[in-house]
Write a structure and sequence with these properties.
The chain is an alpha/beta fold. The protein is built from seven helices and 13 strands. The protein has helices at about 20-35, 60-75, 145-155, 170-185, 230-240, 245-255, 265-270; strands at about 5-10, 40, 75-80, 80-85, 90-95, 105-110, 125-130, 135-140, 160-165, 190-195, 205, 215, 220-230. The longest helix is centred in the middle third of the chain and has 15 residues, at about 170-185.
Length: about 280
């Protein structure tokens, strides 16, 4: 089994409106420049921007075009996310496409950025998929703020955690810190791929399973090609971070029943005193 898998994070400055053709061209250019790449990842809502009015039923026209492109270039694609219309609901949905041009699976963002991401329903399922070198977990942007998401993905076997992201606010530095912590706590690679320019302030980050920053981007456009070493993940989980802590094994072996993980307990806990989730005026 191969242990190395090369991924490029595309931190792009995209204009308002439909960006399908721009994205296709940038993907082709990236693969041409770095022909050894196995996967390309784009930022959250990069196709049409953050407006639910662009929601489409899936598979959307853009996803169909990305499937053709993935097959043509022999590359895996995670083309950010797109608003998906499903009956009365709109979801923020990311798609995984393999190098044969097939949709491997889709993921609906479990934690929309409420109360600001209005009119978007929460997904209820997690996604871990197989690539040729190992298992990859997929979540979206604000999901990073909830350690339960990463821990769930890792318990399902994920060795790499990928978060297409769209952050243009002053809390981006907090998210890069969270990416480092998430990597160390879960002994996994963490990649958060943000936009630059109009909608995002960049600072995409790649962290290895020992919590070491492989690359932290600036605020402008960047193409970030990295080689993921699945062997390093497995060795770190076996021997410990810096040959010290083995948190996943400790979590597995601990016998505590975590009551707060049930919806019923959260609704009756001290969290109830926080009041209603709403915009601050």
């Amino acid at each position: 089994m191969m242990e190395h898998f090369s991924i490029a994070c595309l931190q792009l400055n995209l204009p308002k409106g439909n960006n399908l053709e721009v994205l296709q061209n940038r993907i082709r250019a990236t693969k041409q420049r770095f022909p050894w790449l196995d996967m390309l990842v784009l930022s959250e809502l990069c196709i049409d921007g953050p407006a639910t009015g662009f929601a489409e039923t899936f598979p959307s026209y853009a996803i169909e075009q990305f499937c053709l492109l993935a097959k043509d270039l022999n590359i895996w694609l995670i083309p950010g996310s797109q608003f998906e219309r499903a009956g009365e609901h709109v979801f923020n949905t990311a798609t995984v496409i393999n190098n044969q041009g097939d949709v491997v699976s889709t993921y609906r963002k479990v934690f929309p950025f409420t109360p600001y991401e209005e009119g978007v329903s929460a997904g209820s399922e997690f996604l871990v998929f197989d690539c040729p070198a190992g298992k990859v977990g997929l979540a979206i942007c604000y999901d990073l703020w909830f350690p339960e998401v990463a821990r769930t993905l890792v318990c399902e076997g994920a060795e790499v955690l990928i978060y297409p992201t769209l952050t243009g606010t002053i809390d981006r530095d907090l998210e890069t810190s969270m990416a480092i912590s998430t990597a160390a706590m879960n002994q996994a690679y963490v990649l958060t791929v943000n936009a630059a320019g109009l909608y995002g302030n960049g600072k995409s980050i790649v962290v290895d399973p020992q919590g070491k920053v492989v690359h932290l981007a600036g605020e402008n456009e960047e193409i970030i090609p990295v080689e993921i070493d699945f062997g390093l993940v497995r060795r770190t989980r076996e021997r410990g971070i810096l040959t010290l802590g083995q948190p996943l094994k400790s979590f597995r072996d601990n016998q505590i029943h975590w009551q707060h993980l049930t919806p019923e307990h959260r609704q009756s806990s001290a969290l109830q005193e926080l009041g209603q989730l709403k915009k601050i005026k």
